[in-house]
Sequence to fold (227 residues):
Amino acid sequence: MIQAVIFDLDGTLLDSIEDITEASNRVYVPRGLAPCSIGEMKALVGDGAEELIRRVFLSRGRPAPDDAVVAEILDDYRREYQACWRDHSRPYDGIPELLGELARQGVKTAVLSNKSDIFTGRMTSALLPAHRFDIVRGARPGVPLKPDPAPALAIAAELGLPPAACAFVGDTNVDMRTARAAGMLAVGALWGFRTAEELRTNGADVLVAAPADLLGIVSDPASRGGT
Fold:
């Protein structure tokens, strides 16, 4: 049986794309870039803020900025995001109920995001206040980002569990690759930012159409009762 579930944050627990898009456009448009749509932003996020900056420039036909410019833009982005992340971000329908049921079943829960550790902690606490996660981790200096399996494996070790006793739930190729590399059950969330094809291609063991579908998989991973 699965004894712990590690969740991605954006696109898995929280629908946060509108606020990410708004903060990004506040930074990029004054620098002469065309604004990103929400649909475009869904395809660009997932590998951390620095990589998002480079991808936005490339998507507008501009060369990727050097590290010094990335650092400057990142400071501006964090300031803008701090001002707006509460505006529209919310848990996906069914997520609070899922977390409550996992807690009742004694399943451990954790969050692992490529979003900065500060915002990951703030958003988890503010937008999912009824649930106490065992571990919440975002991007931190000196720690590799997903899809490197190291942070996922560190969470499993801290929980006192082998990787095979953990399910990793996410909505992007990054999450599926992380789960596979870590030896965890890779669960693709179809309500998130990316497609079923992307999740399958990158190693999803099972796809779930709604948060409640995860409960059957936790109870019996061999059933793989999702989509």
In short: DSSP finds ten helices and eight strands in the chain. The beta strands are 4-7, 14-15, 90-91, 108-116, 135-139, 166-170, 185-189, 206-208. The first strand starts at residue 4 and ends at 7. The radius of gyration is 17 Å.
